[in-house]
Amino acid sequence: MTDAAGFSERVERVSISGIREVFEAAGADAINLGLGQPDFPAPDHARRAAVEAIEAGKADAYTSNKGTLELREAIAEKHRRDNGLAVDPEDVIATAGGSEALHIAIEAHVDGGDEVVIPDPGFVSYEALTHLAGGEPVPVPLRDDLTLSPADVEDAITENTAAFVVNSPANPTGAVQSPEDMREFARIADEHDVLCISDEVYEHQVFEGEHRSPAEFTEGDNVAVVHACSKTYSMTGWRLGWIVASNDRVERMLRVHQYAQACASAPAQYAAEAALTGPQDGVDEMLAAFERRRDVLLDGLADMGLDCPTPKGAFYAMPEVPEGWVDEVIDRGVVVVPGEAFGAAGEGYARISYATDIEEIKEAIEIMRAATEAVR
User: Stretch 36-62: mean pLDDT, rounded?
Assistant: First the structure.
């Protein structure tokens, strides 16, 4: 049903991201601690692979809807190498970033009125994409350490539940789910016959603990893994992600992908293949840099008296902040994102990205310290 202006009810239920609103309100010279984007260059060998493909005329035409076989083989090998999973390249779809992978997973599995259980606070796309599919998001508040409780997810499942979303390491919290949690999520998906969408785009940003996928533990076909080159290889602008699932699920998601996208960008596919199969040194270098930045930020937040669960992965911290803190910080020239942009349970928190230069982080800490004193 459309509204009086002729717009769909689904799109009217979705607003511009609160993250984008913060960016547009900030000054041009602000220190940006709101951006979920590594500040490192993409790997040279990935860039060269794209250039060589373009110059050889290999990137001029559509690829297979699922992506080139060579890329899908590289993705399958990545999951064997990193996760111990036997993935058939035919059960992979290369997408326009992890965002499209999430989109086609939800579109292919959610009917009007179906429920999707999502973490709260959680990545902004989960709620919006559920609305766009005509579904109903069911937010589940996080535990005190900002991880998602499998028991709470299971309690939220009803006969109308089509899927639930797990994100580890997580945006916006930096939380890493335990292997025991991931095993439970797989059990829940199997026993209730609902899809677990596992968003693993921050897999390689883990400082403490270990990344495990529910796909390692499932005994059925109820887990779909969303991944991307964006965070691992600092290739956000290349828009190359993928989804791995059972063949039946892939074939349904392919129908959405085929009409919405046809195929992922061909130059980006060649770059991603090279990133996945080439040297991985840059991944470890970024991880070490993010951990140093995290520790500087956490020390600064503690010094100003702000409580913050230690983020064990990704490149975000989510401290509890006093009322008015976010506006005060932004007014003083540092971009942070209010926690409520990620769900109602995020109220009273702020998301801080430390994917920026360590000297800028130190400068931002002093500004945040002054803002904290001003609002107390």
Answer: 97
- Quote the tokens at residue 287: 């991880």
Q: In what order do the strands lie in the sheet with 136-141?
A: 92-95, 241-244, 223-228, 195-199, 161-167, 115-120, 136-141
CA neighbours closer than 13 Å in the CB half-sphere of residue 50 = 16
Separation CA 108–CA 88 (nearest Å): 20
Question: Which residue, 67, 24, 40, 76, is CA-closest to 337?
Answer: 24
> In this structure, are strands 350-353 and 316-317 parallel, antiparallel, or unpaired?
antiparallel
Per-residue model confidence (pLDDT) at position 357? 94
Q: Can you list the positions of beta strands (E) in the chain?
A: 31-32, 92-95, 115-120, 136-141, 161-167, 195-199, 223-228, 241-244, 316-317, 334-335, 337-338, 350-353
CA distances from 205 to 44, 179, 213, 302, 313 (A): 20, 16, 14, 22, 5
Backbone angles phi, psi at 320, to 5 degrees: -75, 135
Reported as a single tens digit per residue, the pLDDT across 76-124 is: 999 999 999 999 999 999 999 999 999 999 999 999 999 999 999 999 9
Residue 353 · residue 364 · CB < 8 Å: no
This prediction has a pTM of 0.96
